[in-house]
Amino acid sequence: MSSPTDDSDEDAPPGWTTEERDDDVRSWLGPDERVVCAREGDGWSAYAVPRSELGASHRTPLTEDSTGFDKVLSAARDYMERNSDEA
Questions:
Q1: What is the largest CA-CA distance in the chain?
Q2: In the 8-state DSSP scheme, what is residue 67?
Q3: Which of 24, 39, 51, 76 could make an S-S bridge to 46, C-beta 3.0–4.6 Å?
Q4: Could you tell me the pLDDT band of residue 86, with boundaries at 50, 70 and 90?
Q5: CB proximity list for 7: less than 8 A, separation 6 or greater
Q6: 23, 6 in Cβ contact below 8 A?
Q7: 10 vs 32: CA distance, rounded Å
Q8: What are phi and psi of 44, to 5 degrees?
Q9: What is the pLDDT of residue 17?
Q10: With 70 as the cut, is the pLDDT of residue 84 above it?
Q11: Predicted pLDDT of residue 56
Q12: CA dist 71 → 6, 15, 35, 59, 64 (Å)
């Protein structure tokens, strides 16, 4: 099982830049939005925020509930890969 400090996700998908990487948050910045994996309570959640609303509270969940790090990282990477082709 990976942990937030593993280097396995070092490379962001094409069109995305790793923005933040620490024990409680992982985030990537794309052309139109930011994708975040954040520790919340006992688990992790993943969500996307439009770049035009980065300071706002609007966010689109990428996972149903708070869950394990591996699951949210996978959901975030899948989302970024699906949206990296939309240029």
A1: 36
A2: B
A3: 76
A4: low
A5: none
A6: no
A7: 21
A8: -125, 155
A9: 94
A10: yes
A11: 66
A12: 14, 22, 14, 18, 11
Using one digit for the tens of pLDDT, what is the confidence trace for 1-54?
444 444 444 568 888 999 999 999 999 999 899 999 999 989 999 999 998 876
Q: What length does the chain have? A: 87
Q: What is the pLDDT of residue 43?
A: 95
For residue 37, with 0-12 CB atoms within 10 Å meaning exposed, 13-18 middle and 19 or more buried, which class applies? Answer: buried
Helix, strand counts (H, E) of the chain: 1, 5
Task: Tell the burial category of 47 from Cβ atoms under 10 Å away from its Cβ (0-12, 13-18, 19+).
Answer: buried
DSSP state of 47: E
Half-sphere exposure of 37 (CA within 13 A, CB side): 26
User: What is the reported pTM?
Assistant: 0.79
| Residue found under tokens 């688990």 | 43
